[in-house]
Amino acid sequence: MTFIPKPKVRHPSLPRNDLGLTRRDYEGVLSTLCAGCGHDSITAALTEAIWGLSLEPQNIAKLSGIGCSSKTTAYFVGGAHGFNSVHGRMPAIAMGANAANRKLSYIGVSGDGDTLSIGLGQFCHAIRRNLNMLYVIENNGVYGLTKGQFSASADIGTKAKKGEKNLQPPIDPVQLAMSLGASFVARSFSGDKRQLVPLIQAGLRHRGFALIDVLSPCVTFNDHEGSTKSYAYTREHYEPVVNADFVPLEREIVADYAEGESLPIVMHDGSRILLRKFAQDYDPTDRVAASAFIQARQKQGEFLTGLLYIDESQPEFHEVNGTPDAPLNSLPFAALSPGAQGLAKILSRYR
Amino acid sequence: MPALTAQDRVNDFVIKIATVNGTGSASANALLMKAIFRSGVPVMGKNYFPSNIQGLPTWYEIRVTRDAHTARSGRIDLMVAMNAETYGKDMREVDSGGYLIYDSTWPRPALLSREDITVLGVPLARLCNERFKGVRTRILMKNICYAGVLAALLDIDLERMRELLAETYAKKPQLADSNMEAVQLGYDYAKQHFNCPLPLRVAPLDRTAGHILIDGNTATGLGAMFAGATVGAWYPITPSTSVMDAYKAFCDKWRVDPETGRRNFAFIQAEDELAAIGMVLGASWNGARAFTATSGPGISLMNEFLGLGYYAEIPAVVFDVQRVGPSTGMPTRTQQCDLLSCAYASHGDTKHVCLYPASPEECFYFAIAAFDLAERLQTPVMVLSDLDIGMNDWMCPEFKWDDSYRPDRGKVLPLEEIVKLEKFYRYLDKDDDGIPYRTLPGVHPKAAYFTRGSGHTQYGAYTEDSAEYQIVVDRLLRKFGTAKTLVPKPVIEMADKRTDVAIVAAGSSDGAVREALVVLAGMGIPVNYLRVRAFPFNDEVERFLAEHRLVFVVEQNRDAQLRSLLTLETQVEKSRLRSLLHYSGLPISSSFIIEGVLTEVAPRPLRSVAPVHATGTPAE
After folding, report:
1. Nearest to B261 among A92, A124, A322 (CB)
2. A97 touches chain B (CB under 8 A)
3. A-B C-beta contacts closer than 8 Å
4. What pLDDT digit, counting tens, does each position of B373-429 carry?
5. Engineered SS bond to B505: which of A114, A141, A336, B554, CB 3.0-4.6 Å?
6. Residue B285 lies in a domain
7. How many DSSP H helices and E strands does chain A contain?
8. Whether A329 contacts chain B with CB within 8 A
9. DSSP string across A24-68
10. What is the pLDDT of residues B215-258, one digit of tens each?
11. A104, B265: Cβ pair inside 8 Å?
12. What pTM was computed for the model?
């Protein structure tokens, strides 16, 4: 990390979004992560994506658990409330917050330890409820703050910094989410900002639970020879299968895409994502076929990236619960309490 | 206790009904209890049921009490022994001079008989088998039938029963008819074969006007709706589940927009208690009134998040309906055993605001107070009732509602204040009361702050600096001092004569203590009484303790948890506090307290400091 504060001076020619805000307006405090950490690239991608969507900072809520990844919610959109909760329990905080105010954009940032070990249950249940949020896993296969233990996403045979080999099978968040019926499943790499930024934008526009598992190498504890989550290994083995281009509603007309190569998906708010497929026989709207494809490639040592599965038709939590469009935290007290007359009527049953 | 003559027993006796769970006896017992209540005679009902769905022994105790006592007396005058499996034990429990009714369709073991009680046989199964068809119907009707037998023996007005059945089965009149037929069957049999009524009997009074019969969990759920709670998240656990059932049922009726059909509340069945409290904190952080209901094992699981709520200063309301511990314990039996684990829940220096309701009536009012306190103090507030209050029907004065009530949302900065600020800092003590200002997401970017359970400065920034850390935790302690002035004050009842002996109790022990005070006064032993209603303890509690030489601390747990809290958090000398501990899992009785006090006071001078422990038998 650096100890030099970011200068407040802004160049007048910095590009501005629809709200007239620059990328700098979407930054947070300085990162305290190690130089070269994959997580910082993801923070940059999040900043870029949110700026690009022209989201109002105060209408974003940033949520996280505990760990290196969970610290990063402080590093973007300083104008949004952040909540660094307890280890593995961010989905519960997100569920409650979302129940109280369905109008905000919820961004959860978690890690492989936070999501796949201590928080595995809550992660699964957030998917089950199709909680409307973007859930980013910054996945590095290792516990950083406690100095290099394997996490549940470590591959069989991968080596720790001190040479120890992992012999237990990994929990793959992508396959897990697919099997649980997740409505938006993506995988990316912190080193591929061009792929990641539109994926984040699509995830934010998705109505329901949007999972992006981002391989994010740990430069201090897991970037050595023999690790399957190092920068070198990741670059060698990742294979984009479906890239997503996010097309906001207002720009739809000028979008230019070639028929056949691209698959347009209409999001709930009317905006579109264009899926560019690299493998002709891959169908990101067929859960069973997509799962089989991902597993087959994984067996060959490749991990597929991109928007791997999407289903815009699944109802999210509020549709199932039947809550009104207005946030519950904005309802007037008169709409909530039946008053003295109501009480008398209720109690007549107990006389 | 002195022997009572038959004429003393009008409107003052105890019925116990032994049945098998899952056979519909709950409806028969409710019918009996409510019919007596509607005759203007105060009643108390206690259900002793197994953690099971069908086939295990279950008991229901109805105390007919003209003086409106709310606790068990400790005696049984009339036993309805419907369960062959427990027949012997049930017979032994009846007090001398009492009555036992059994199903004489089958012979009962000759060995099991007592000379000092009157045994009445009614061929309930035979009567119902002859009249009704279908196995299930016959079993259900057999139980309704004993209600009819009791109506004849105790002189309960049949019209009251007819009226109640008509209300219960308003939408299925044929069920009201068949149930009434079963009542009549038992009634007629008893009239023909026995001298009705017995000396124990019900005579109409006018002592229930303005009162209702309601359980604490229903009252709690009702209170949560009236307080304006919009998010309820929970994991099912006995004996708290019916809090959420009640909240949802009331909201389904009163919170659904008639035009759109949309629900003005979110009801979330969580994956576990860890998630349930997390959802409550998330919703409260975001400006909704949110709550959960649980019991001891759930409190254990919620500890981590309760610590976060305390340190990050997020409101939350937790209803803990206590049951017997430790571990899984006895889920369908009552205790007051979470006093310490709630007061200091979570690791590190934490203290929580706790409220101790003593009746369903207080469950209702404290539910509302809990939301106001949680938002005013920006901290989790726990309301500790127990299975006895939560799941039994209590006679209470009708709840009142003041339409001018508005929720106290605490120090939440509105937009117009935020825009005027140079910069917002979350944890400053601007008003010198230990309570900082907070902002809600979605209002203005200037209001943004970072909520964290890690060390933070008064400005809301991460810190590992000793001085900065201490500024915040010291202010939290000052906030707890402010809480002292806001929580409900204790209820103090002074004896007619001067005394330096007192009883201190909390929650559901109240009814038994108040009855004991009357009896003790009658024996020439005046005792003052303070009922603690909240933690932290107010100055009134401190003063009361200081003013008494000998204080009996009555509570329903083994380890004297209330006494421990009092010694930890007040200046009282430990040696002046004597424990009367009742932890059998049954609700405490007045006789237990009277006996406990008598071992130390009156004829004998003060001697031992050893606590008096209750025995575990249901008949003590």
Report:
1. A322
2. yes
3. 222
4. 999 999 999 999 999 999 999 999 999 999 999 999 999 999 999 999 999 999 999
5. B554
6. yes
7. 11, 12
8. yes
9. GGGB-SPP-SPTT-HHHHHHHHHHHHHHHHT--GGGEEEEE-SSH
10. 999 999 999 999 999 999 999 999 999 999 999 999 999 999 99
11. no
12. 0.95
Q: Which of B252, B272, B286, B403 to mutate to test the interface with A (most CBs of A within 10 A)?
A: B286
- Which residue of A58, A125, A329 is in closest CB contact with B288? A329
Q: Are residues B75 and B147 in the same domain?
A: yes
- The shortest C-alpha distance from A16 to chain B (Å) reads 18
Which residue does chain A place closest to B443, by CA atoms? A58
Closest C-alpha to B322, from B47, B552, B565, B556: B556
The hierarchical CATH code for the domain A23-350 is 3.40.50.970
Same domain, B43 and B176: yes
CA quadruple A231, A234, A236, A239: dihedral positive or negative?
negative
Who contacts B395 (Cβ-Cβ below 8 Å, separation ≥6)? B37, B42, B43, B44, B68, B70, B208, B211, B212, B213
Q: ipTM of this model?
A: 0.95
**What single-letter DSSP state applies at residue A281?**
T
pLDDT value of position A4 = 58
Residue B485: CA atoms inside 13 Å, Cβ hemisphere, count?
7
> Any chain B CB within 8 A of the CB of A121?
yes
Residue B21 in this model has a pLDDT that exceeds 90: no
Whichever domain contains B32, its CATH number is 3.40.920.10
**Neighbouring residues of B151: CB distance < 8 A, sequence distance ≥ 6:** B32, B35, B157, B158, B161, B183, B186, B187
Residue A5: its pLDDT value, please? 62
Give chain A's residues under pLDDT 70.
1-9, 249-262
B397, B429, B453 — which closes off a domain? Answer: B397
Judge whether residue B598 has pLDDT over 60.
yes
What domain range includes position B109? Answer: 6-207
Average pLDDT over residues B40-46: 96
Residues B526 and B383 in one domain: no
Do residues B232 and B354 both lie within one domain?
A: yes
Q: Looking at residue B591, which CATH number applies to its domain?
A: 3.40.50.920
- pLDDT of residue B8 exceeding 80: no
Same domain flag for B196 and B266: no
Co-location of B456 and B520 in the same domain: no
pLDDT on residue A268? 80
Counted domains in chain B: 4
Which chain A residues contact residue B254 at CB under 8 A? 338, 342
